[in-house]
Amino acid sequence: MKVKILSSVLVLTFIFTACSDWDELNTDPNHPLAVNVDPGLKLGSVFKEACLNAHLHQRVHNLYIDMFSQYYTGTGFGTYQNQSQDGWTTDYWNDHYRWYNSLSNLIDQYSDTETYVNAVAVMKIWRVWITHRATDLLGDIPYSNVLEGEYDSQESIYKDMLNELELAVANIDPNYTMFDDPIYGGDLTKWTKFANSLRLRLALRISEVEPDLAKTHAEAAVAGGVLDALADMPTMYANTAIWGEGYSYNYYFWWGSGNGVGMTSTFYDLTAGIGGLPFNLSDVGDATDYPAVVDPRATIIFGSSDQNGDVQEGYLGRWSGIAAGLSADARQEPENFVQNNSRINVTLRGDFNGDNGRAWTIMPIAEIWFLRAEGALNGWSMGVSAQEAYESGVAASFEYWGLGTASQYLASTDANMAGISAAWGDGNGTDLEKVMTQKFIGGFPDNGWEAWADLRRLKMPEVDFGVQFNTNVPQGEVIQRVKYPSSQAILNEANYAEVAASDHEGTKMWWAQ
Amino acid sequence: MMMLISVLTFGQRTLSGTVKDAGTGEPIPGATVLIKGTSNGTTTDMSGNYRLSVSDDDAVLIFSFIGYTNFEVAIGSRSVVNVDLQEDVTELGEVVVTALGIEREERSLAYAAAEVDGGELALARESNIVNNLSGKVPGLAVSPSGSGMGGSSKITIRGSSFLSGNNQPLIVVDGVPIDNMGAATDDTWGNRQLDYGNGLNDINMDDVENVSVLKGPAASALYGSRAGNGVIMITTKSAKKGTSGINFNSNTVVEIPREYLEMQNTYGQGTNGVFDAESGVSWGPEMTGQSVTDWTGETKPLGAADNDILDYLQNGVTTVNTLEMYSADDKKNIRASVGHTYTKGIFPTSNIQKLNAALKGGSKLNEVFSADFSMNYNKTQGENRIKLTRDPDNPYYSYTIMPRSVSYSDLERYVRDETTYEPLRWAQNGGVILNPYFTTNYSTNEDSRNRFIGYGKLVYSPVDFLSFHVRYGLDHYDMRQRDQLGTGVPYWFSSGDVRQTVTSSTETNVEFLGQLKPVNLGGGLNLSVTLGGNLLDAESHSQTSSANGLVVPDFYSLNNSSNKDASEYIYRRAINSVFGMAQLSFKEFLYLDLTQRTDWSSTLPEENRSFSYPSVGLSWVISDSFDGIPSWMSLLKVRGSYAEAGKDANPYSLYLINTIGASGASQPNTKPNENLKRELVQSKEVGLDLNLFESRVSLAYTYYHNNTVDQIMPIPVNPATGFSYEMINAGDMQNSGHEVGLNVGVVRSQAFRANIGFNWAKNKNKIIKLHDELDRYLIGDGLVQVVAEEGGTYGDIYGYTFMTDDNGNMILNEDGQFQRSNERVKLGNFNPDWTAGITGSASYNGDFGAVSFSVLFDLMQGGDIYSYTNAQAAAYGTSAITAENGRGDYTISGVNAEGESVTSTLNAQQYWTSLSSIDSEWVYDKSEVNLRELTVGYSFPSSMFGTTGIKGVSLSLVGRNLATFGSKLNGVPPYAYTTSNQQGAEAFSAPRTATVGFNLKLQF
After folding, report:
1. ipTM of this predicted complex?
2. Residue A301 CA to chain centroid, in angstroms?
């Protein structure tokens, strides 16, 4: 009896204690609940991560895109051999859809709220930004119905993105304010110009496959006003002193196998001999083996082998690059070691510790001028002539690098190793070749995505692809895309089956047929 | 029925006698004397004497004492029964400490339990108690994390039960669950991960009375949630009734690095046979004393000198001195001890100091009230523990790739350029590779931990058959961990940095227990009932601060930076529980155990907050059930049980949070789940115990079959949802296996005794089901992947192999080199097929004193591991295999991309570099035999000391880990780099070491 009474007392005691505030105990004191976080705060990270997520930047931006576009090179990674890296793509894919969903959820949540009209417009612009990156990397991707994982054709995605940009700009209402975004601090005029510039980029992307639609959008974008001043250039500040917040090429520089961020011979060939200006020794430190005439931007971007602490004896003083597609045997030759060639200049990578704290370029002003130049060459109404746009683009690039006037450079008929000069209409290269050469050089250091797109769309500028390591990609062509994450075949089996046959690196973009 | 009647009808008389140690002849105080088949009994006094009332001549007395073999004797008509108890040299004691510290006769247990005597562990000790259990308990696997001195070990009992999360048993010290910590990281980059050792290291081995291993949930259902992986229960020493004394124990061992990767000493720094002072690899020329200008800038003969890790390392020393006193009478008992441990590690400048103080006592105020308590204080201070895996500061990493012509004496002379602070090393392009002297001089670390583990317990026994207690248990520690990177370090912040984490953790358990002692229900039935409850409350706060980049060089303070970071983590969990346990026995040969427990956990949603789980067990001592069982069959018992153990989620797993960073708020990758429920381990086991010839031969066999269902784990979801993973309850994983223990007393004379023990365990795992949407789950990803596949086995290792065509021909690349496959394939499984231990012991007692000898081998058969050390050493040309054919060419054949047969000739550098990226080439069979322990002891005869007051002096020579046989990893120990579930890869672990030394025990 006693036992019974005591045990019931015990049980009761516990039932009562069990009713205390357990929910509070299990509420995370370390992080706020998502429902309590202001939407603007969530957006900040989507903006920043899409540009500067260090993990992705290293893998996708640097080791995929920069390698594919021959912006930089390093022989130690599979991407040098035009191979997909499943883990990298997986990480990018996962992050992309996390951003995409965050944006879509917020857009849905606020699309009926009048005071958020501008915020919704900006979120849509940014959703196009992240989407054009993803589709340019992969081709067809889930877009209109991401929750079901249905793949949309790149054609439909592009057409929808162009419409989205048009609508977003139309919806911007200066009577309402915008949140303090990390790119323009809520400046709606700049956002409008940025959206139009992006629309111009997308229009030219499809100009080979949908010339009429491209013309319509391009002309409307320019008429609506595109970015043309360095002060308006969209950038993201990277505090590279904090790991994870920003990416410094330096991490790859020191940690990577193959010791990357080396100059490519493509870059050498494009910049050596052009512009009529002497090689600027003061940019690179000591050098003994360098071209007499070189593009003045080139020595700012790449230093001499003297700057490499690990340069081998006999290879000092070289200002030189490494060819793409070197055979394994050729890669064993010391002259082809990155350490014995030019690496990204100390002015870019900062000295030793990656603390270069520079603003990362989202879209260079020069590129927008070159887009207009290409449009003008197509016969579109771009507000300026092709030559004016071309020369403004070169000047914008010179301004970006602090080089002052470009007039002497633009007057020079000296040709680079590919036979192309800076002067307009001198016969050393076609007009389009000149534009694309300057777009390639003017895209440094951050615009490798566009250079890769141009290599796929126009095969310009002309570059040497070397040995083709990937049997899916024809000899003499750039890798066209990377493979979907392998998890798609498992987690999204039915939908993936529809794209599985074309899931290799040789499948061309819709816009690059 | 006849027996029952006879017990009830006869009258009473008094019996007396003395209980002595058969070996030494010393009286045994505190021994239990029990009338078989009843709960009547007594204990011996300080002189080993007892008095007892008995009711009939047929009564059988059972004499027992911890550490001795039980002795049964029929009293007949005698009034004096003197007994000599034999010391029990078997590992499986007869009285076993079970859940909640309840001591029970092993014969009544329905499940396998194992107990190891503390004295045995303390003799040939390691810094980690669990390492000492290796080979002694069937089914218990210990894997050191490869970080050497003071490092942590991974313990699993009967295989791994959980796909995600902790698979290690709960550690309980004197009934108080403690935080065992560990070095659980999948990160192979090292990233400054240090192994601070297991929480168990905080216990002084000299304070340990015994260690009980409760293997399945059957044994541990009463510890609730966390006992699903089994329980390791440590009971600290206490004073036994009627004893008093002072002991001083001194144990000193030397730790000698004895084996590491077999290296070549023929070819020096350089590539393709040409010397290069800037090269990071050892593919240079044959070293014949030719004159070269090496990385130091000096011109000297090229040779292999002072380049062996075993020379770079030092011999470690561990000295433990413990003074204890104990005293107990009928009413009170107290034991106190102070211990000091100094360990000098094998890694230069590393050391650990420990101070332990323990106090344990009890008082029986009167027949109704008593109380007891235990307090263990520990202070641990460590310096320069080794960073793990691929961290540049890991000296075993730099050794693995260091060109063979580089010497440690040069590295010691050229550590840092004092103008630029740049560390000096053999190759500047090996940017992350550090001079190990830079690590010991500048990139140092230190830590300290103050810990208190203890309890207080009040017992109230209003009547004989009832007792209640309330008990408050506490595990609290404050810990500070600090590490720095020296000014000049070539990565992160080149001006150096400081990082410090301060943690304060407290777990309290308040337990209420009511016990109905065995009552005779008539008809030979006895019933005992225990009802109880427990309130668990755990909270820890940790705060990490860092100075990112020092302003003043070489001044290592958090203040010395303009870029400081701080973050914190707070952990909270509470579980309230009620439980009940009933034991019904029939005539001392049939025992039925029933338990039930209900938990309320703070980490689960309201509707799933409480969960209940039962157990039932039956033990049948057949040998006592029938007449006519031959007398040589001392015990024949069969047992069987079914048990469940529920487990809650991790805190904060229910609701979506955002993390706040420099760029705003972001959403985690894993989608939380507001409907999580408990995960559940379901365990069945059956077993047999057989003792023959007065227990000279004892055999224990167990078969178990466990399923873990509704596992809480993150499963990958289509990332289009915005999440990469979602937490769910799913899965069914099965472990089944056999355990055998055999013990044979070969010789059992008064003077000479010899004993052989053998134990063996085999576990088989099967993934029955993962999830409808998922047939492959990634357990760990580092160097190689460890996965669980539906229908497969936990711990399958996946990695790349050679690229082959459909006909199995190797596809070579355009340079005729090996290519790695596009897909990962199964390369092995990290779980051994079986493990075993063999012990031998002998002792001889003579006028000259007593000598004893013991030896322990442990065996592991099967199981695979990927060795990154071997793969990297091959790529860098340092290991012996890279010189096997004198650096001649290799001819390999296969097909090219077009499918045509090709043959190519590669030089040694091309061949091994190409081969090093083929994971399948670096997976090894882990099978090996270890001579784990060897001791020789001598006890001086007590007659020698006369009136000096000394009761005993014994001296032992001890050795551990003396030799390894059959290892296939070219000298590298097969230990994973982490204590997480990623046990499939080894990376730059510490060398094998042997410890030898002596133990001196003085008893006053």
Report:
1. 0.79
2. 17
